[in-house]
Amino acid sequence: MNEIIERKIKLLPTKSGVYVMKNKDGVVIYVGKAKSLKNRVSQYFRNSPKPSKVQAMVDNIDDFEYFITVSERDALALESNLIKKYQPHYNILLKDGKAFPYIAINMNDPFPKLQVLRRIGKAGYKYFGPYFAGLSAGEIVKTANSAFGLRTCNLKITENSVAKRECLNFFLGLCSAPCTKRVNKEEYAERVKKAINFLSGNDEEIESILTEKMTNAAENENFESAMMYRDRLKMVAKLKQRVVANLPKNVDKDVFAYVTDGLNGVITSMVIRGGKILGVINYPADDASLEEGQTLFNFILQYYENMLVPEEIILSHELEDEELLNSVLKRKVKFNYNPKGVNATLLNMAKENARDYLEKHIEKSKIKFANTLGALEKLKSALNLKNFPQRMECYDISHISGTNKVASMVVFKGGEPSKKDYRKFKIKKVQGSNDFASLQETLRRRLNRLKNLEGESFNEKPDLLIIDGGKGQLSSCQEILKESGLDIEMISLAKRIEEVFLPGQSEPILLKTGSAELKMLQRIRDEAHRFAITFHRNVRTTTQTHSELDNIKGLGVKKQAALLQAFGSVEEIKKAGVEELSVVPGIHEALAIEIKKYFSK
Fold first, then answer.
1. Which of 18, 149, 203, 485 could cross-link 176 (Cys pair, CB 3.0–4.6 Å)?
2. Is residue 96 over pLDDT 90?
3. Buried b or exposed e, range 272-308, using 16+ CB within 10 angstroms
4. What is the pTM (predicted TM-score) of this model?
């Protein structure tokens, strides 16, 4: 522990808040919350034994800062925002956008249908799921519809509305046609009730219905329909295979098992709905929390951001603050740490999954580290960089003979692409094919936005700027960097023999072929090239479909079509006089004069 940290610990308040740990390069490596900042932060620096993962993190701490909050709830919110912003290496990070499918029914609709949704929370909707690990929500919906005749259309059906005729699904026996009042509201509601009963875990009725329909179709030599019902029965059989013995059919619960070897960890999540195991999924838990329960707490907060919370959660370790977690989840949950009987069996099953995954994950983690953070460490050393290149930005230009010039800005954080931070530029001021000037314009605009704190991605200062090109490109971009007054390291990578140029050095550096650090630079350079080419292609396509007529004020789509129909092409319109233009339907004299004036420039 250095003197700065020792002094700061003595001054820590006993209030709730959030602490941010940084390494010697100023990179945020861990974010945590605490009821008492003084007690929690002090624990990390005591000489007591710690898990290997925690000790590895502590060994890298060079400084920390903290934020006092009004309540623990506020601390949770701030912690979550900071983790998303900095993506620290020693925090659990569930990938954004990972939303499993649910089956939803709008109970406010007089004639509801089954829908597959990945976002939950709509008022009046009833949800079932999530479905994953070999179970298709779409196939389950088709199975329920084929048995109970629920509609699949988007028609707005009311008790008074009547459609002209039934759709094909009715004649195939797949819809009860509420649109033409083949069934009334009460009869349709009974069908919905049966579908809900099936989705809640009761399979007997749907199996009986589908078997009867398959038999009837076969007897009537409608073999195509019979095969369809047979496939639907296979889906029911797959669901029945997931029934947990001795567990009631109306039971919903989740199971979480955390297994760690001290350095690496895995959390296995098991979802049980309607007495069935809908899925099991494993999450690497690279978290430097002091206790296992704290790690599970941090994980569960992220896990339920877009997941339904069940009545009961079975856990391998006791959570640090149930009351706080319940307030965030907005539901009173029964947390079970000492399960008996079938619940104990479920937890043991989750633990076995976690142990098995951990053995395989350790080797993958080593490879990932070598290709990301390990590669960055080697890059810092090989190029003698002042700062650890946590955030790298790479720039490339794309055009064809100086037309439709664009630039790309690609961002890597911790050695991995951060696509939400990618940005693209249209070159506005450079004439002709001048890559040097185009790079200068791009960099000037980017650095000005950093200085003015404009935009989420532009606000964050890069540790390393990478220019696609040789010594000339680097030199021209260095002029802009000096002009900005910002202290940021910059290099360029020339593609011919993969030479790395540094400012002020006449000779390039040749990194070892096939080395992790060279591959890292190649990855970000190639990604910038791909991103620039894709953007240029899109701009070129848009330009080609743009008509000069779009630039004339008062000339809408219909009038443009009338002119083209009358004259055949834009070139012929240019040659026409005011009188000829005025003859065209919709083109009055004033507009004809405006058209002629535009093409006479």
1. 149
2. no
3. bbbbbbbbbbbbbbbbbbbebbbbbbbbbbbbbebbb
4. 0.64
